[in-house]
Each structure stands twice: as structure tokens, then as C-alpha cells.
Amino acid sequence: MTIWTLGSVNADLVFRVPHLPAPGETLAATDFSRGLGGKGANMSVAATRAGSHVEHIGAVGEDGGWMKDRLAGYGVSVTHLAEMPGPSGQAVIELDDEGENRIIILPGTNRRIDIMGFDEILSEAEEGDWALFQNETNGLLDFAQAAKARGLPLAHAAAPFDAEAVAPLLELLDLLVMNQVEAEQLQAATGLAPEALPVRDVVITLGAKGARWIGADGDRSFEAPKVRPVDTTGAGDTFTGYLVAGLEQGLAMAEAIELAQRAAAVMVTRMGTADVIPKRDDL
After folding, report:
1. What pLDDT is stored for residue 56 in this prediction?
2. What percent of the chain has pLDDT over 90?
């Protein structure tokens, strides 16, 4: 089976800093690295390393050939990752000594994906496949409608949060993944508590406090594995990719959440994003 991921692909430009700078402060970085990132790419790599086949749908610019090659090298199918003029997505990440980060994103070609191609691409989907997407690209509603027209279970990570983008999707979703801040933002925007959302399964990640699942069986909490984090970048994406992969492979929701938590726990002990997402054997 296959996970069809509509998602961003970014060059992550990571600057290590002693602390996150205050407004107006000039601060010397202690290190720099460039890696593959973007929430979509991270989720695709995570799902692939969890053992699923992933078809990534998106776009990179004329500077993005290395990112396409790297995704392919990690086992992600890039047949539907277009190349077009202009800059690819870029993320400038400030990372302090406590593992906290601050991120500035240039969407680039992630916001220029050809939405007219979704129906044709998803016509290749088969029963048992999943569709997965997040908020760093254009065409969210079009992709959701195309996925549901094919009868695919549809998972959405509401990050980065945008109430206007998420609200029209809710009636179409089978799985919604958010962190605690995003859940609070969605409730403020819609007036609906997580348990009142018209979504079959809602999973809220709580960082070191674990996760919460709201589904047909009620409201259940999961404790997080205890680790010492060095970099929290990409942990949520790793969680979501592993969660959807687990479900696509037939795990029950509770088992898939526990698998995803272990993957995210390993991820925060590593420096980097897509390039260091753990393989299933690492868990």
C-alpha cells in the first residue's frame, strides 16, 4: 500500500546560537548546517523509515535538485515532485543550547504546486492507501476533496496553524494531528473543543507530557518515553509520519501512537531534520 503525501520540501539552514536572540539583538552563531527539511518532506521520510511506501506530491525550485535527489535516496518516490523556476522553500532555524528553536520560512515553490494534477495523480491510488498533508503548501482543500473522491482515509497535520486553512477541511478528515498550542488555537477559532470536532480521530501531541487521542472509544492519554532532548525540530513531523505509517500498515490507533511516540523520542536526541529521522530498527 501507499501513503500519498502532499507536502513542503525545504532547505533547512540551521544556526546554532547560545540563546534565542531578543528583538534587536545581534548574536554570533556557533555553528551552521544545511539539510533537507519541510514538514511534508519530514513526514514522507518518517513514513518511509517506518516501512511504508510513500509518493511525495510537491514542487522544488531550480535550486532544489539536491533535495529531490536526497528524498529519492531515502526511498521516497519523487515521481510527482515537480521542478519549476524560482526558489525552493527555505527555513532559517535558530537552535539554542537547550534544544529550543525559532524558525523563519520562505514558502517558495511549496505555494505554487499544480493543484489541477491532484485528480490524475490520485487516480493511481488503491484501496488501503492513505493520504497525508499539512499547512505548508497551496491546494489543501483541492487535495482533500480529490483524496476523498478516491475513498482514501485522510490525515492532516494542522501545522503551521492557520484557522482559515484548517476549518474548511474538518468535515473531510479522518485523522487530525495537532500539538497542544495548535489545539488551543483551533478551539479559539472555531469554538469547538477537540472532542467536539467533526473528525473521527483527533491526536494531540503534548511534548514531554505524551499524547492524547480522542476517538470512538473516548479520550485516552499516553505517556511519553523519557529522553534528554538536544533538538526538537522535526519531532512532530516524525510523530505524524510514523503514526500514519502505522495505521496504513494495519496497527490499531493505540499501537500506532505508541510507535510514533518512540520515533519522536529518538528524533529529539538527534541534531537535524529529515536527514536524521530514525529508522524503525532504531526504535
Report:
1. 98
2. 91
